[in-house]
Amino acid sequence: MKFKTALFVTACCIAGPAFAQDAPTSPPAQEESSEREVLITGSRIKQDPSKSALPLEIFTTEDFAREGINSPEQLVSLLSTNGNGADNLASNTDVVSGAQRGTNGLSAANLRGQGSAATLILLNGRRVAAHGLQGSAVDVNQIPFAAIERVEVLKDGASAIYGTDAIGGVMNFITKTDFEGLALNGFTDITERGDSPIYRLSATAGYGDIKADGFNVMAAVSKSWNGILRGQNRDFVNGNQPNRGLSVDTRGTPIATAFANGANALFAPSGSLLSGVPLLIPGTTITANGGINYLDLPGQAGCESFDGGMAYDDALWANASARYACAWDTGRAAILQQPLETLTYYARGTVALGNHRAFVEFTGSDADSSKQFSSNQYAGNTSTLPLYYPLNSLTAPTYNQVYNAMVAVFPSIAANYGRPISYRWRCTSCGPREYQTNTKTLRGAIGLEGPLFDGWDYRAGASFARSESTSVLGSGYHYRGVFSSSARANASGIPGAVSGGFDTRAPIAPGATAPGIVGLLNSGILNPFSLVQTPEALAALDAISAEGVTLYGGRYEVRQFDASISGSLFELPGGTVQVAAGIDYRRESYSFNGSAEAELNRPEIFNVAFDNANALTSKHRDVKAAYAEVLVPIFDALEVSVAGRVDDYTGFGSTFNPKVTARFTPVDWLMIRGSYNTGFRVPTFNQIFNGQTLSPNPTTNSLVDPSTCPTGVVSTTDPNCAAINPDTLSGGNPNVGPETSEQYSFGVVFRPMPRFSASVDFWSIAVDDTIGSLTLRQLFDNYQFFGDRIIRTGGTITQVDLTADNIGSRRTKGLEFALRGGFDALGGAFEVGMNGTWLLEKKEKFLPTAPYTEIVGVFSYAGDLALEWKHNAWVSYATEDTSVTLSQIYRSGYQNNGLPSLANNQSATRPDYNERVDAYIIYNLSVTQRIANQFKLTAGIKNIFDTDPPFAITYDSNTGAGSSWEPRVADPRGRSFTISAEVKF
């Protein structure tokens, strides 16, 4: 296997430096700036981190500069122990559904692939608020990166110390606490193509020496900008690769596709051009009722004549009636890097009160993001979205051009000349659909620590944290103009209002005679058969735009108080027995606001994902906890630590979680370590309290009843394999309970010489009663276990239940490697290193009676993409003032997806289909030069060889998202050049 070769070569040739220091060779880690306490993340007892049994990985500001890391998101993506979920600004920027709703502008950590909600994020050892929209994961980009001194990553469960969420691990961002002077920093990251720039400016100032002056005050501020990167700007984003089994299932194209829709009383009382006449595809008995795009007809320009256009792959999508339809590459319309502008600020004051220290800390952020994806598709029908292109003096040239092309192939339509053309259209002139999100965070903390009596210390603190987000509509959304349902018509108060009738409250575009986008399109002012619109048409679009309308908003708050004591008990042959105990009180609250514009008594905006069904007045829960930890050095070579925590949660009762760790050091150069612990995670407010929404499934005609159609292929001749389009029920469930975990690890650390270390740790995590929501694909793949979630009408599946629940179990096992080595040569010091993760097993099941399914190295649309092997390796050379680092990032390949589904892989029948996605391998180079003690300059090249993401089929016909690459694995920017400069005074 390729990944095993990579492991062997890396271990033998690029073994082990100080990019990310492993705890056994790292300097002591301190929390809250106490020089007397040495606390490491994952423990409340002072101890020597070089002898700790806890698997810690520590990153410093030197590491950030060397690797061109400009944000917490970039640090998270570098971790080999981090999973590959839709947790970054590239993977959640397209159309999303289910749990990914509300991730606008969010970046999260996902340690050991257990999910972003199962990774605990701390700032100086205390919690921060979850993202205001989602209410579960913490947005790591709210962390004040300019003030960070180091980041400690605990690769182990920690519920016995911290409580809920610490199943996958803990990331503790630790700030500077005693900074003096002034430091100015500037950073740029520009791609070779000159697009998607990243900039950051920051300043840090501090005054006062705690030892000499008895106080220190410091502040830091940072402003960063991430420029937009669009899919159309990268050639590897290409959904038109039929030979490789990839083509897009949409007939909503920038040049409209005509359909045989029948009569509509408002705009087509006699029917449409294609209705009521035979439309047999020449030489066949197949009717072309799947759409006709005149560009795809014989003698015309072809679907590829417009950007992103392609012939509809009727064989791949089993839809022969769409032989003359075109499709459009929706992936090229999505953005690969969300534009993000972030301001973060941090201030701290520390004062010495004799041997005691008090601090006050304040931090906040203000971020603006723009999530953009493909333009709206207007799929005309005869009732609630009547779209008919009329024949009049304005439209005659276009109408006749389209008519002449179609009548040459389908002469029967000659009898209908003059009737309007019904169609399906992708309105690129309307602009991409856009959500503009502003997120503000605020956090304040106070604390006091010091000695109680001989050998005993105390720590106490309180904090308040808030994250508040609001999303508004940007471009691409317009008022509908007709009622989409009887409920809306009845709620309008308009006399005689009916479903499909005019909504006179919607604005009327200049020149149109009917309201909204429906009125404008039926006027012919906007031309769906042209890529170029007149100034009058564009002005008319602006007149009915819904830009600026509130989409939704949310607020998450955490109030916390904690106090602990620690000290020595008695002596044993191996040293002093130490103990720590504490209490923790926390109140979490969450509210989610819908939009007034989504109410039934307001004019409707077309195709907006309003979330009013999930609107919550403020909900809160209280957490009361007590914990204790004992460190027992039985003798010099053997040390055991036992910890336990009791949590009482509003609505869930009490839970107790223990943890036992041990280390055995038979000789100075060898340490054997292990741990066992249990953990838990409570459901989010959304998963409990969200309302339930019934949504229509997109009319893709790609689904079949899995109980009657074992092939999974839609057939127009076999009634058992007829296409179905069931509605989906989604939302919260008040009966969802907590998920629980049981995990253990066992590892060996070798330190045969001062500048060399190697470690390997085996770990296992078993999670039961996993909290989540099934996807439509997961439900159909496991239909035999979920009969109560599938509703049939007359034997046909008409509705599926995808609401939140405790949906089964997950088992994950892996090995983590760390290598470090160094030697002096050529007037400087060489250091080499590697961090790697080998995922041995990851399997899941959705019911106790269901079998486990192995998902390591297998593509999935949702959740974590479980890669078998990941590593970061590097080699560096440094003198007193200069350092050079070359690093490699490796992510193994995996089983490719297939369309229309992995179970029904028709892509595999294509000649150039690749069963496995290639490994993603890039190299980075950086050079740092110090000038005196005041100036440091770092220049770097990221992705030296300009490696594109490997081809992968990620397109999802159910949502229209995805394309030809995997944003959960690869960086889409390509080769870029970084410069970082720091000046200190």
End-to-end CA span = 53 Å
Per DSSP E runs of 2 or more residues, the count of β-strands stands at 45
State the helicity in percent bands: under 10%
Over all CA atoms, what is the radius of gyration?
30 Å
The proportion of strand residues reads 35-45%
Q: In this structure, how is the largest beta sheet organized?
A: 22 strands, antiparallel, barrel
Shape: elongated
Mean pLDDT rating: 90
Which runs of at least 5 residues are low in confidence (pLDDT < 50)?
1-19, 24-37
Backbone structural class: mainly beta
Number of helices: 11
Summary keywords:
single chain, six-stranded mixed β-sheet
Compact description:
The protein is mostly beta strands. The chain is built from eleven helices and 45 strands.
Question: Which helices and strands occur, and which strands form pairs?
Answer:
Elements (H helix, E strand, L loop, with lengths): L1 H12 L6 E3 L33 E5 H7 L4 H7 L40 E5 L2 E2 L20 E7 L4 H4 L6 E7 L5 E11 L6 E10 L2 H4 L1 E12 L2 E2 L26 E3 L49 E3 L14 E3 L6 E3 L2 E14 L2 E18 L3 E3 L8 E2 L6 H12 L13 E6 L6 E21 L2 E18 L12 H6 L24 H8 L11 H9 L6 E23 L2 E19 L22 E20 L2 E12 L3 E15 L2 E12 L3 H5 L2 E4 L31 E5 L7 E15 L2 E13 L2 E2 L3 H6 L8 E4 L2 E6 L3 E2 L2 E17 L2 E18 L7 E2 L14 E10 L3 E10 L2 E2 L20 E2 L2 E12 L3 E8 L33 E9 L1
